[in-house]
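Hi everyone,

Forwarding the result from last night's run.
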Amino acid sequence: MTDQQRADPLPEWGEHLTPRAREIVAAARQLLEESGAEKLTMRALADRLGIKAPSLYKHFPDKSAVEVELIAQLLDESAAVCEVAEARNPGSLDALTDAHRRYALRHPHLYRLATERPLPRHALPRGLAERAAAPLVRACGGDADLACAAWAFAHGMVVLEIHGRFPDGADLDAAWKTGARALQR
C-alpha cells in the first residue's frame, strides 16, 4: 500500500450513487439473488421497481453499469469477510478460503456474475479490487504468484461446488482444507 492510498481511504460502496440509484441497485441485487444473471434485465428490474424501463436510464446508461455496481458490492463484502477472517486468524489461508467459500455459497448468483467474465477494473472504485485481494496476498507472504494460485484454487473449488460438479458423498470440507494446506507455506 502506498502512502497516498493510506492517506486517501476508499469511499464506502455506493457513496457516489444517488439514493434512487442505490434503490435500483438494491432491487437489481434482489432480482439477481432470486433468479440469476439471466433474469436480470432492465425490463425485469423496472417491473420490480414499478416503473418503466426507460426511467432506469436516467440513473444508469445500461445494464452493464448496474452490473458493475453489483460487482463492486461483491468485492466490498467479500473483502470485509476476508478481513474479519484474517483478523481472527492472521496468515491462515485455511481461514481465508473458508470465508471466501461461505460468502460465495451464500451469494452464488452474485459470485457468478462477478467472476465468470472479465473484471471491469476500469469502472470499479479505485483500489477496491486491490483491497479484496489484500488479505490473500498477505496470507501468502506477499508472494503474488502464490496468491494467484490460491485464488485459482478457491475460485475453482467454489465454482465447481456452486455448479454441483462434485460427486455425491465427496468430503468437500476435507478437500478445501487439503488444498489450503498444500498452498500454505
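Residues 1-10 have pLDDT under 50 and may be disordered.

Cheers,
N.
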